[in-house]
Design goal:
With 338 residues, this protein is mainly beta. It has 3 domains: 2-138, Vaccinia Virus protein VP39 (Rossmann fold, 3-Layer(aba) Sandwich); 146-193; 221-327, no CATH class. 9% of the residues lie in helices and 38% in strands. It contains 3 helices and 19 strands.
């Protein structure tokens, strides 16, 4: 495959364009220790091997085993289906199983562009757990997803997908922010998938597992290794605090409310059930100690966990991830000699 790859090569955002066969370009990127969260190998041929100047299996191995694909990254590979026979998906799966065992195929989607095509979703094995990302997640809604229903009603209304009955009908739950809900059956063409936006500074990926978070009590002195009050992003001292707006205490999450589409900082203890991965639907029971408790409401987790810290340099409150925090060791004061 003739590849014109684009990749950032520094903090200035400079983009470099390389021309050549895909295998040769990927080898250069491995030597440069480049890494990508999303990769796309678009082959305009079938998955047959030994008839081209490149080998797609070697390309995938360079991405997965060579370190080009980030641990939580996603690799998309496309093949043509013309003259490919009826078992191309099986051949692809067997080639990955025997030659790239650490690559996991999570899904395949057939479509028609200039010809009949297939796109495969590949991730690192044993990273995502039972629900890895799939290309169909951006094409079809999943149970628990937030959708907009455009039917004969006066205006569109929000609902949560429950069940897929068949290719044309889906079951959705409608609610106005309260826990009680009504279930309706809608046609596929009446559903509009909403863009599931993650805050850009979090780098979160939908379906990414949420692991256990360390604890930092309010008042603890920490050193933050991330963006903050200084221009050079050097480590800066801070004190763990509560959210000045909602009084939330970390570890907290950003939850998108279904009733008003606004985002709220929610503590872990305010959820009926702790989320297992980003994108999970949750029921929030607000802390009664907050100045304006809203009662129980439904939402989707879009970011987190994070902590609130107050910088000792500019007295501003920042949201930071646990991996950016390092507890500052306590230094005992020396006693003065009399």
């Amino acid at each position: 495959m003739r590849l014109r790859g684009k990749f950032s090569t520094g903090p200035d955002g400079r983009v470099e364009i390389s021309h050549g066969l895909s295998t040769d370009v990927l080898k250069k990127l491995v030597r440069k220790k480049a890494q990508f969260q999303t990769m796309f190998l678009d082959y305009c041929c079938t998955a047959k091997r030994g008839i081209h100047k490149f080998d797609w299996v070697e390309d995938v191995s360079l991405c997965v085993n060579g370190g080009l694909l980030a641990p939580t990254g996603v690799l998309f590979v496309t093949f043509a289906r013309r003259n490919a026979g009826t078992n191309q998906a099986h051949c692809v799966e067997q080639a990955l199983r025997h030659h790239v065992p650490f690559a996991q195929k999570t899904g395949v989607w057939e479509y028609h562009d200039s010809s009949a095509m297939q796109v495969y979703t590949l991730v690192h094995k044993n990273v995502w757990g039972a629900d890895p990302p799939r290309v169909t997640d951006a094409i079809e809604p999943r149970p628990g997803d937030l959708v907009e229903i455009v039917d004969r009603s006066e205006q569109p209304w929000l609902a949560t997908v429950e069940t897929r009955w068949n290719d044309a009908e889906w079951s959705v739950a409608w609610h106005k922010g309260e826990v009680d809900e009504c279930t309706y059956t809608v046609a596929k063409h009446e559903m509009r998938m909403l863009p599931f936006r993650f805050p850009a500074d979090w780098g979160g990926v939908r379906g990414q597992p949420i692991g256990p978070s360390p604890t930092f009590e309010v008042g603890a002195r920490v050193t933050v290794h991330g963006e903050g009050p200084n221009a050079f992003h050097r480590p800066w001292p801070a004190i763990v605090c509560a959210s000045p707006a909602t009084k939330a205490i970390g570890p907290a999450f950003v939850v998108l409310a279904l009733c008003d589409r606004n985002e709220y900082d929610v503590c872990a203890h305010e959820m009926v059930r702790a989320p297992a991965k980003l994108g999970d639907g949750v029921t929030v029971v607000d802390d009664p100690h907050r100045p304006d408790p809203r009662g129980a409401w439904r939402g989707h987790v879009v970011a987190g966990p994070f902590f609130f810290v107050k910088s000792t340099e500019d007295n501003r409150v920042y949201r930071v991830t646990p991996k950016e925090l390092v507890r500052t060791p306590h230094r005992a004061k020396k006693k003065r000699r009399k």
